Amino acid sequence: MSFFKKLFTREKKEDLDQGLEKTKSSFFEKITKAIAGKSQVDINVLDEIEAALVSSDIGLDTVIKIIDRLETRVSKEKYANEAEVYQMLQDEIATLLEENKTTDLPDFIIPEGAKPYVIMVVGVNGVGKTTTIGKLAYQFIQRGHKVLLGAGDTFRAAAVDQLQIWSERSGADFFSKGMNTDPAAVAYEATAKGMKEGYDVVIIDTAGRLHTKINLMNELTKIRRSIGKALDGAPHDVVLVLDATTGQNAIEQCKQFMAATEVQSLALTKLDGTAKGGVALGISDQFQIPIKYIGLGESMEQLQVFNRRAFVESLFQR
Is 205 a residue whose pLDDT tops 90? Predict the structure, then answer.
C-alpha cells in the first residue's frame, strides 16, 4: 500500500471519528453506565444495556435482536469483564449490519457493465439531498468519471438553480428543462443524454416530496419507469437520503419511500450534528437496506462510503 493510500485512509478514519463524536459520546456513556462495575451480566445488566441502546435511537425491534444475541453469547462464553461485553456488542452490531446487506465497499465504485451508471436520489426537503448529489458527483469525478446531473426537482423554488450550483462546484455537467416541467421527462432525457454522450454516471434529482402525500409520492414510480424506458435495467441504484438528526422520524420516512419506490440503498446525512447516529443501525435492520453513504461535514470530501467495521469501532472507541 502506498504512503498516499495510508494517509488517505487515516484521514477518512479521523473524519469518521470526529463526525460521530456526538453520537459516540452519548452512546458510549450510556453503555458504560450500564456495564461499569458489574461482576457478571445478569438480567438486570441486560435490561440496562437494552435501555441504553433504545435511548440511542437504534429502535426497539433492533435492540431486542441485539440483546437476545448478547444474552446467548454471555451464557455460552461466561462473561468475566467489561471489555468482553464491549467486544460482544461490537461483534453483534457489525454482524447485524452485514446481514442487512451493508458491506464494506472499498471506494465510490461503478459496477461493471453499467454505463451510464444511473442513480436516482429521493428524500424529503431539508435532508441534504441536493448537497449529497453534489458531493457524490465530486467523488466520482475525482476518480476520473464523467458525470451528468439531471434536475428532476422541477417544483420547488430555486431547486434547479441549487443543483446547477452544485454541478459547477463538483465539476459535473448539468441537464435541465427548467422549472414546472415534467420530472419524468427530465429523467428520461437525462438518461438518454448520458447514453448518447458517453457519460459514466448520471444522477437524477427528484422533488423532496412530503412523504404523507401519496399522490406526490406515486410520481416517483413514474420517474423510475421513465428512466427504465430510456435504459433497460436503470436506475441501477435508488438512494434514499435521510437526515440523522431526525432520529426515529427517519424510520417513518424510509417506510413511506419504500412504499413509493424500490429503495436500494441509504445515504445518512448530518451525522456530525447529532447524537442520534444509532438510527443508522435501526433503519438498516428494519428495512434490510444497505447504508452506502454517510455525510460527516460540509466539505465535498466529507461524504464517505459507509464502512460498517469502522463505524462500529468508532462508536465504541474510548
Answer: yes
